[in-house]
Design brief:
Distance between the termini: 25 Å
Number of strands: 7
Structural class: alpha/beta
CATH class of the largest domain: Alpha Beta
Helix content: 40-55%
CATH superfamily of the largest domain: Response regulator
Largest sheet: 5 strands, parallel
Strand content: 5-15%
Number of helices: 10
Number of domains: 2
CATH architecture of the largest domain: 3-Layer(aba) Sandwich
């Protein structure tokens, strides 16, 4: 399920550094979920950062051959392997890396791999995210530059959630049920869909896989709101 090509952000009116604290920074997110990427994209637009994205380890490595982002945000469960190896390689190259996952148990392996910090999905606070990025790139005045109001991350596009569900419906029927259930567990956690998260946790058995497939089909059958 390839992501659409990156397009330039729409022109922004002049704003001061306090309102765009990540202006001038480029973040690479290595993430297979369109829903999670959309949520991060909205935070980056609000913060002034440029976001580049890769949905596989191979695509990330290809991008990094010709580009050096300021910070990499690496998901742990990816279609072509685990993110810990990429994290270790990037840290050895001197790049600040944040690990992210919808599974809190991923924190310890990520930190062992060398990640500077671990981001739980979903990202809860815009200001905390901004401060973390600024600390990693060595901005000493991170606290004064960031959004200190208690703003939660903006909601992601429900169409992106549906796209991920459609992708996952094909994964459930595939051979790698471990990747499929991990993808759906993370998606459920990010979207606040606790029933989906719980069904994914039980999806590694034959009855659990059938129940998970049925739940995903039911989510896809829901009528879409037209705004």
């Amino acid at each position: 399920m390839p992501f659409p090509p990156d397009v330039p952000y729409p022109p922004q009116p002049p704003l001061d550094a306090e309102r765009l604290p990540l202006r001038g920074l480029t973040l690479l997110v290595v993430e297979d979920s369109r829903f999670a990427c959309d949520a991060l994209r909205l935070i980056c637009i609000r913060s002034g950062a440029r976001l580049r994205r890769s949905e596989t380890l191979a695509a990330a490595r290809a991008y990094l051959l010709g580009h050096r982002p300021d910070v990499a945000i690496v998901d742990l469960g990816l279609p072509d392997g685990r993110g810990e190896g990429l994290i270790s390689d990037l840290v050895r190259a001197g790049l600040p890396v944040l690990a992210t996952s919808g599974d809190p148990e991923g924190r310890d392996p990520a930190m062992v791999a060398g990640a500077a910090a671990f981001l739980d999905k979903p990202i809860g606070s815009i200001g905390a995210f901004q401060r973390l990025i600024l600390d990693l790139v060595g901005y000493g005045d991170a606290q004064s530059r960031t959004d200190n109001a208690a703003h939660s991350a903006p909601p992601a596009d429900p169409l992106a959630f549906r796209d991920d569900l459609a992708h996952a419906s094909t994964l459930i029927a595939g051979a790698d049920i471990g990747y499929a259930t991990g993808f759906l567990r993370s998606l459920g956690r990010s979207a606040g869909d606790h029933a989906l998260e719980e069904a994914a946790l039980a999806g590694d058995t034959v009855p659990g896989r059938a129940a998970l497939a049925q739940l995903v089909a039911a989510r896809l059958a829901r009528p879409q709101r037209v705004s």
